[in-house]
Structure formats: structure tokens, C-alpha cells
């Protein structure tokens, strides 16, 4: 999709990094930067005065899908409200409020806040120079939980700003905006922010240029995530430092085949196969699980309670299991919470949530 | 599928390794060995006096699908004829003829011939002790070409023996029989013999127990392989020795994501995506291509001529490209042959063949 600024308002000069082309009809999305330096396009006007967007939590890595696969989880996430604000300098954004348990840990400087960074990036992409915006962030997700907290803020914010100006950017451009935020916070990885924006399962195929593949889990099938978050800090940096620098060929082939099986299971709606692949990582999980007290026992408890598979969500400490029934999910969650307490001496909170198939969206 | 020997003839004692259970209705096939040592089952009688089976060539590895993914190619392959022969000692097999260009290099000792090894294994699985068989092998595939020559002989033979006794073994059991042959010839890898028996694309998910996933390429879409085999020897051992022992994390993640994209492209019938993934291996192909004179230029020529992707077939030296039209395939083949000659100073033979969706089958 090439961006065509239809209703001419004010001519502005757009740099290459603000323009895109992509094949948005295909399940594979791609972004190229192709317009010449001096292309004249028009700054869009706001079509709404105020919007509120929601973006879901995400489970990245998914075992053998390490660093390239993620999916969205319904009913958990962040909200971002954006208003046109004449008191804010045109072309800039101001963060008015940050609500939620994690609010005290978050900066209100938009250059150091995920929602702020993504909003600024979308404004740049759209070429907004005449309108100032005010942003309010409502954190529904805890920080550093392994549930894509930073990505959810960025995704909600990117969608909100885009929608206030008529929704001219496609999902892939919004992912690029979100990536600017992720880059500052946890590294240039799209496996949280892509599913947070696009919903469902997303495979990150390439970064140069960005290429994303939607993996459609069949609509007629149910998929529930059992999410159990212990009261434990697992900083992404530390969890990344635990990874091996080099991987033996046998383990590489094994994980590749499990990644292939995981992708096939998602597309075929084979939950048993999905769970088995999720559990089968021989490279990342074996290094990270020992750093989260009780994690190995929690995985064992989940499987024994009937889960199809279990692994670490993102960089942890949340454990994620998959199942096809909410009722079963609740029983599995109980077992996992119990195991965190019994073996890891950690209190944990639980949730059983469906796959989110929509991604970030306006809620008002 | 449990094996039920229905028409009782002669009671025999079956060892565990001759019995199987599997979920053959699922796209994921699995073999377990579960019957106790002393189970009494019946030796089946031949229902035919003579059969002839064909098994197709196969392309294994498929770039990032290294060592776990393969597919079958129609119109190229080996034929095996099997006859009940009262002159052969009961329970044994004798190789009467080996035809074809490669025949002089192949042993007629069934213990050292791929077709013989697989036939013996199927006879063991079925518990054949009262009937002797005579085998004739017609090699359609050259040896050491990277087109699954040994697997085709084993697959055709396994299917032929199974069918002469009523076809009681399922595809997964036949793959296990073929694996016994592959183990002796080129290593315990099922990525040739599984698609040679099952047809289409097959993902080898596990060996202990053997688990195979069929990946159905949409029936309504065409997929052509352009196969160009230079006059050059690329021994599997040498090609395997060229592989890196350790792989950096960045390359591991890249290849895993491309493997996922490859699997998704197959299932979605996305030939452009399939070709791109096929071409994207950063681990195996970069080590092996320089050992085949002209290979890098051949790949470049294929892409420039319009191929969606190109890589080394199996361990080489055949180059394989993919395209959706036979006409285009022929033009691409010309370019590849020309590049092998121009850059590698190698003569090469070409073929443009469809995906084989059936696998090994009786032809008379």
C-alpha cells in the first residue's frame, strides 16, 4: 500500500523515511522506503478530536519461535487516549496522565515513554506539523512481565494517533513506528509489537525491509492461553545474557523443525501439535528457565494438569500454557500457581485468556 | 493405526520392533513400538504374485529446511518389481536384476542394496517367514545427485513388498523401513525417504518416536521444480563435513524464521514466499555452494530468469529452482545449464517437473 495523501491541506516536504509501499493484501506484509527526497505530499487534518485505543498483551518467542514469532492475547492490555490539544506546540505531543499500577515507574517525557515514542513516530510518518496532541496512558499490563507491556503501550498509541488523522497508515507502518519504541526499551524486535498491532499470530520474516506474515489460526477453533506471572523480576537484559552465543548443529536443526511444526500447527489449528512444539525448545528455555525459581516445576505441573504445552512468555517471568477450554485453563492455572509457590517460593497471579485475533483498535 | 493381521494363516512370534501404532488420520504421523514381546500374530499371505512400484525423486533440505523438510518430484524416480519366487529361500529376498545407468555401481547383495535393505525390513515387520521374494530394480535416478536416489529405491521396494502382502503397513511404518536403508547409505535422515513414500511436502518432526507432518500444498495450485544436475560429484560425506559445527544466534534465529516462513508458504500455496524462503538459508548453502563449481552463478541465473527461489537440492550437486509455469521453468533451466557451463565449466542436464502429491505407488 503506497500512502496517498488524498485531501490536500498544507503541502509539506517528506523525507524518505516517512513513506512506504507494501503488499497489504497478501498475508506477507512488506515495507519499503522508496519515494524520492523531494516528493511533495500533504499534511492530513485530524478527523476526530479525541480517540481511545486498546492494544493487547502479547506472548513472544513461543518456545522455538524465539525472536521471530508472537501472538496477541485478548482481555489484557493497555489503553491510550489521544486528543487534539491547542495548548500543545504544533507537531509535538505531551503526555498528560499515566494511570495504572506501573505508572510511577514511567516517564512523562514522550521521548522516554513507549507510547510517546510511537506517537511521535506516527506523527513524523504522517508529516504532522500543524497540530499538537495530548496523550493519556492507562497501563493494564505490569512492566517486565514477559507479556509485551512496552509493545502494548506503543501499539495503542500508534493506532490512536493514526486514527485521529484518518487511519492512513497500514499495520506494517504502525509496526515500524512501534519498533522505534521497542528499540529504545528492549531491542529492535517486532515479535511483540507486530501481534499487538495486527492481532493473532505474526511471524517476523525480515527487518530489512520489514516483512511480516500473518498466520491465521482457524476462526472456528478456540485457543486459550493460561498466563501465570510470579512476583519475580526477570530483566530482559539478564535473560538475554543467559542465551548461548553459539548453537550446535543438532540443536539448531531440532529447533528449526519445531519452529516449522509450530507454524504448521497454528495454520492447521492443531492445538495438540502447537502445544507440543511450544514445549520443545532446546536452546532458549533450558537457559532461561533455571533463572526463574520454580519455572521447570510450573511447566511440569501445567502439562500434568492437561495443558497441550507450556513455556516462558517472552523473556519471562510469566509462564504460558495453551489449552482449548477455559474451564480446563482455570484448573491448569491453579496447578501452575501452586507449583510457583511450592517450588519457587513465589506468589503468582493467573489469567486465562483467548487468542486476540484483532490487535490494537479504537475503543471510543 | 494398529496392525491387525486379519486372515490367520501361520501363527508367528513378533518382536516389539515389528509392531506399530499410529494416528494415520492426522496430518501428524507417529510410530510407537508398544506390543509386548510374546504377542501372537499371523504371518500374512501374498495376495499378488508380482507387483511393480514407482517411487519419486525428492528434494530434501529446501534451504532453511535443512535435515527436516523434503518434497517429492513427479516423473523422475526408481521402479522396483517384486515377485513371489519359490526358488528363493522362504523369508529371504534375492535381487535378480539391477537396470539403469547406475546399475554397475550397485550391489546385488540385498544387505548392501537400498531396495534390498528396505525389502528385508518390511518382510521383518510383516513377519514373513514362509515366502521368498525376487526383486528387480530399475534405477531412473543417478547416484549422488542430491535427488534422493537411495531413498527412491528404498521407498519403491518397501511399498512393493508391503503391497504384495496386502498393504498392511501404513506410510509411517514404510518410512521406518526406508530409514534402515538410509542409515546404511547416507545417515539416519528421513527427509528424502518420507516424501518419497508419502508424496508432497513432509516435515520430520521427531525420530524418537518417528513423527512426520504432511504439509499439504493447495491442490488448485501448480508448483514446478527446475532441476539442473551438473556432471560433478558431491559426496554426501564431504558436503556434510563442510557444515559449521556451531551456529551463531543471529543466524540461528534467521534460519528458524525462514523455516517457519517456508512452512507457512507451502501451506498457504504462496509460491513467491516459498521461493524467497528457499533462497534464504544463511547456514548450509553458503558453506556448500562454493564446493560446487558455478553454483552461486546458477542460483543468480535462475532468479534473474524469473525463478521464485533457488538452492542446492539435498547435498547437491543438483540445483533446484521453483516456478509456477512449465514454460517459464524451461527458460529458467536453460539459464541454469548455461551458468553451470559458463562459470563452473560443467555440463549439466535439466528437467522441469511438477510436485508429486502421491508418493511411492504400484504401477502394475
UniProtKB/TrEMBL annotation, chains A, B:
InterPro entries: GHMP_kinase_C_dom, GHMP_kinase_C_sf, GHMP_kinase_N_dom, GHMP_knse_ATP-bd_CS, Homoserine_kinase, Ribosomal_Su5_D2-typ_SF, Ribsml_uS5_D2-typ_fold_subgr. One of its GO terms (molecular function) is homoserine kinase activity. It catalyses: L-homoserine + ATP = O-phospho-L-homoserine + ADP + H(+). One of its GO terms (biological process) is threonine biosynthetic process. The keyword Nucleotide-binding applies. Residues 120-200 form the GHMP kinase N-terminal domain. Pathway: Amino-acid biosynthesis; L-threonine biosynthesis; L-threonine from L-aspartate: step 4/5. Its EC number is 2.7.1.39. It comes from the Eukaryota. Keywords: Amino-acid biosynthesis, ATP-binding, Kinase, Nucleotide-binding, Threonine biosynthesis, Transferase. Residues 264-339 form the GHMP kinase C-terminal domain. PANTHER family: HOMOSERINE KINASE, HOMOSERINE/4-DIPHOSPHOCYTIDYL-2-C-METHYL-D-ERYTHRITOL KINASE. Belongs to the GHMP kinase family. Homoserine kinase subfamily. This is Homoserine kinase. It comes from Juglans regia.
Amino acid at each position: 500500500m503506497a500512502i496517498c495523501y488524498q485531501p490536500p491541506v498544507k503541502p509539506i516536504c517528506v523525507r524518505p523515511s516517512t513513506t512506504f509501499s507494501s503488499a497489504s493484501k497478501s498475508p506477507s506484509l512488506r515495507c519499503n522506503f522508496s519515494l524520492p527526497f523531494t516528493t511533495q505530499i500533504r499534511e492530513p487534518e485530524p478527523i476526530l478530536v479525541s480517540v481511545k485505543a486498546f492494544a493487547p498483551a502479547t506472548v513472544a518467542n513461543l518456545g522455538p519461535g524465539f525472536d521471530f514469532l508472537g501472538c496477541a492475547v485478548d482481555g489484557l492490555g493497555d489503553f491510550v487516549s489521544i486528543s487534539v490539544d491547542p495548548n500543545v506546540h504544533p507537531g509535538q505531543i505531551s503526555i498528560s496522565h499515566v494511570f495504572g499500577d506501573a505508572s510511577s515507574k514511567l516517564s512523562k517525557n514522550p521521548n522516554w515513554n513507549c507510547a510517546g515514542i510511537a506517537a511521535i513516530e506516527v506523527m513524523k510518518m504522517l508529516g504532522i506539523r500543524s497540530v499538537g496532541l495530548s496523550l493519556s496512558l492507562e497501563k493494564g499490563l505490569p512492566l517486565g512481565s514477559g507479556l509485551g507491556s512496552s509493545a502494548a503501550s506503543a501499539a495503542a498509541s500508534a493506532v490512536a494517533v493514526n486514527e485521529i488523522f484518518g487511519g492512513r497508515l497500514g499495520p506494517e507502518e504502525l509496526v515500524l513506528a512501534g519498533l522505534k519504541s521497542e528499540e529504545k526499551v528492549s531491542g529492535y524486535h517486532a515479535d511483540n509489537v507486530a501481534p499487538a498491532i495486527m492481532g493473532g499470530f505474526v511471524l517476523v520474516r525480515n527487518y530489512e525491509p520489514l516483512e511480516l506474515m500473518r498466520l491465521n489460526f482457524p476462526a472456528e477453533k478456540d485457543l486459550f492461553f493460561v498466563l501465570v506471572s510470579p512476583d519475580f523480576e526477570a530483566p530482559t537484559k539478564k535473560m538475554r545474557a543467559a542465551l548461548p552465543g553459539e548453537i550446535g548443529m543438532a540443536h539448531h536443526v531440532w529447533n528449526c523443525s519445531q519452529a516449522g511444526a509450530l507454524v504448521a500447527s497454528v495454520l492447521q489449528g492443531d492445538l495438540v501439535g502447537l502445544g507440543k512444539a511450544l514445549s520443545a525448545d532446546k536452546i532458549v528455555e533450558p537457559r532461561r528457565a533455571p533463572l526463574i525459581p520454580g519455572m521447570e516445576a510450573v511447566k511440569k505441573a501445567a502439562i500434568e494438569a492437561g495443558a497441550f504445552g507450556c513455556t516462558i512468555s517472552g523473556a519471562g517471568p510469566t509462564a504460558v500454557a495453551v489449552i482449548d477450554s477455559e474451564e480446563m485453563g482455570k484448573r491448569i492455572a491453579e496447578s501452575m500457581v501452586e507449583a510457583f509457590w511450592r517450588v519457587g517460593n513465589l506468589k503468582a497471579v493467573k489469567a486465562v485468556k483467548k487468542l486476540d485475533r484483532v490487535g490494537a483498535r479504537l475503543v471510543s
